[in-house]
Amino acid sequence: PRAFAALVALSFSGAIGLTFLMLGCALEYYGVYWPLFVLIFYFICPIPHFIAKRVGDDSDAASSACRELAYFFTTGIVVSAFGFPIILARVEAIKWGACGLVLAGNAVIFLTILGFFLVFGRGDDFSWEQW
């Protein structure tokens, strides 16, 4: 039951984040779909974590170099996802209102991804590894 409630909440927050992203693209006043390229950042964001978890499973150290490198790459991906719409707005490829909607969507989506790993990444009786 707890896993089901968490999954529903994460799905709902992900849908809200994607709604912000789509509003930043599809509203008639904005009408440019360049911000959809942040979807690439959403998909590649968890990859460093998956690689570090696979490679560094055997160490019991509080911090490993592989895990720290994964945090570094993930941070770079997240910062790039926030910087991309700002750069698009600065070069006037999109309007600043669309940039704000995309940034709001980024915040919600990345918090959803973080929530997913906090809820399902602990390795207890329900984890993402079972899915």
UniProtKB/TrEMBL annotation:
Keyword entries, A-Z: Endosome, Golgi apparatus, Membrane, Transmembrane, Transmembrane helix
Classification via InterPro entries: Vps55/LEPROT
Subcellular location: Endosome membrane; Golgi apparatus membrane
Membrane spanning residue stretches: 6-25, 32-51, 71-89, 101-121
Source taxon at top rank: Eukaryota
One Pfam family this sequence matches: Vps55
Coiled-coil blocks: none
Keyword Membrane: yes
One GO term of the biological process aspect: negative regulation of growth hormone receptor signaling pathway
Membrane topology classification: Multi-pass membrane protein
A GO CC term attached to the entry: Golgi membrane
Sequence similarity: Belongs to the OB-RGRP/VPS55 family.
Protein name (record): Leptin receptor gene-related protein
Lineage of the species this protein comes from: Eukaryota, Metazoa, Chordata, Craniata, Vertebrata
Gene from which the chain derives: Leprot
